[in-house]
Design a protein that fits this description.
By secondary structure, the chain is α+β, with helices and mostly antiparallel strands. It has seven helices and 14 strands.
């Protein structure tokens, strides 16, 4: 939490300079941006971890890291929601998690614009600024508010849009804010009843998924060889009362095809 707070403050203070200087590059496509802020924040996190937890592995969105899941590894998304960050839309985060053998055991997600701190430790609950979190009591999918996200790949985005179109008639409504970590935190707080997305990376969900799970959400993480029909890259997180119904609805919408 201490490192994530410091990183969030850096992200906030460097944003105006990074945008004013034109320090914006692209990654997978022209719409997939990375700013000087992303790089500076990840460097700060790595430096602080090296001081406080010397010799431990780090996986980050900008600088990569070791691929093996064995042992303890820190997972950082320096700015989740970089397009929002670029535009000044105040819904983005710094996400940091500790994983052991590929499973999250501690995580913090900090919103630089508001200063809110989401946190969890395995077996110890989930919190927002010290207030214990609990998922919603939703029991019907047709009355559920569901979050999702879209890929930067035009082909995949089109397929995802088709799934959302087929799902729309089965839920109360759908939200798309562009920040997977905060979508998962929103499920933890009961602000969303569920969320699903295809194609997330480990740094997108490592902290947020733990926060949601510790708040009582049922979680389906991306995993190679998944046999439930949703595909290897699908994440589903929902209040227990709608988790099964949401999964079945996604199967009907052919979510695995994206």
């Amino acid at each position: 939490m201490r490192i994530a707070r410091e990183a969030a403050e850096l992200a906030r203070t460097v944003r105006d300079k990074a945008v004013a200087d034109g320090s914006v590059d692209t990654k997978s496509t022209e719409t997939d941006v990375v700013t000087a802020g992303d790089r500076a924040v990840e460097r700060l996190v790595r430096e602080r971890l090296a001081e406080l937890r010397p010799g431990e592995s780090v996986l980050g969105e900008e600088e990569g890291g070791e691929g093996a899941l064995d042992g303890l590894r820190w997972v950082v998304d320096p700015i989740d929601g970089t397009v929002n960050y670029l535009y000044g839309f105040p819904w983005y985060s710094v996400s940091l998690a500790a994983q052991v053998d590929g499973r999250s055991v501690a995580g913090a997600v900090v919103e630089p614009a508001s200063g809110r701190v989401w946190s969890a430790a395995a077996g110890h609950g989930a919190y927002l600024d010290g207030r214990r979190l609990r998922v919603s009591a939703a029991g019907r999918l047709d009355l559920a508010l569901i979050g999702t996200g879209f890929s930067y790949s035009v082909q995949r985005r089109s397929a995802q849009a088709a799934v959302v179109s087929r799902l729309m008639s089965q839920v109360r409504d759908i939200r798309r804010a562009g920040v997977a970590s905060l979508d998962l935190c929103a499920v933890a707080a009961g602000w969303l009843d569920g969320v699903f997305e295809v194609g997330l990376n480990r740094w997108d969900w490592a902290a947020g998924a733990l926060i949601a799970a510790e708040a009582g959400a049922e979680l389906r993480l991306p995993a190679p060889g998944s046999a439930d029909g949703l595909g290897d890259e699908m994440l589903v997180c929902a209040a227990p009362g709608i988790a099964k119904e949401l999964t079945e609805a996604l199967l009907r919408a052919d979510a695995g095809s994206v």
